[in-house]
Specification:
The chain is α/β, with parallel strands linked by helices. It is built from twelve helices and twelve strands. The longest helix has 14 residues. The radius of gyration is 19 Å and the shape is globular. The two termini are 37 Å apart.
Length: 306
Amino acid sequence: MRNAFAKAVTELGDEYPELVMLAGDIGNRLFDKFKDKHPTRFYNCGVAEANMTGLASGLAASGLRPITYTITPFNTTRVLEQIRLDICYPNLPVIVVGTGAGLSYANLGATHHSMEDIAILRTLPNMHVVCPADPVEVKGAVRDALRLGRPTYIRLGKKGEPAIHPSEPDFRIGKGITVREGKDVVIFSVGNMIKPALDSAEQLAARGISAQVVSLHTVKPLDDALLAQSFADKKVVAVVEEHSFTAGAGSAVLEWGHVRRVNLDKLVCVAGPDRFLSGCGEQDEARELVGLTSHAITQQIVDRLG
């Protein structure tokens, strides 16, 4: 996803001459093409993420369109106060990009895991939370965030996520994208869980269960119409995310359903546990440890169907 992001900002830099890239001491070679095309609009802010966020705020207040970029926990939880007061409070058009979200950096330990970022950032007024499913959705996310012109957090994976879409879909913040049709259940996949979600749909089909799969790329704001239709039509509504069970996308849907008074017995939330992952390994191994596999998704849906 990070390569797709670098390509997207390089291309969109032509369309948006006010776009400025700020990086937290990573991706210097990744953005070589951006720097070649826009040499005065890239700044390596060093390992000083709070300063980078404050700088982005000032640039945005001056009429520019800054994007901050570094590893997810360093660009979200570490700089929460600056995001809250310098970006969200004045409602400035800053895009905060976290790369290697969830368990992408599983082998680097808890300092590099980000299983709480959605929960924290979706509580901030004015903030939009966007989690592209694959490299194809990344460009759409950046483009639509620039169109929106408000505080936006874009959550990227890192580990060579496969392209699910054969061509660029119509990506609109707040509107989910159906990637597989189905009539019995729906799996709302958040961000980089789209491949396990599609694999689960195949496993369910082998059991005679027809599953729709949707890229629920925006956690805030949620797709109100799509959720309402899904709770009305489907026997099970599953939300799958590489994030803590606590206060993530599943919780957002739970809150939405409480207000709308839908049948929340249909809701299945597949997410990580409320604890730090102390083991060390690759992303797939970490997912096995916390139950974020296609088979775990399938089993929870089958159990709920009864």
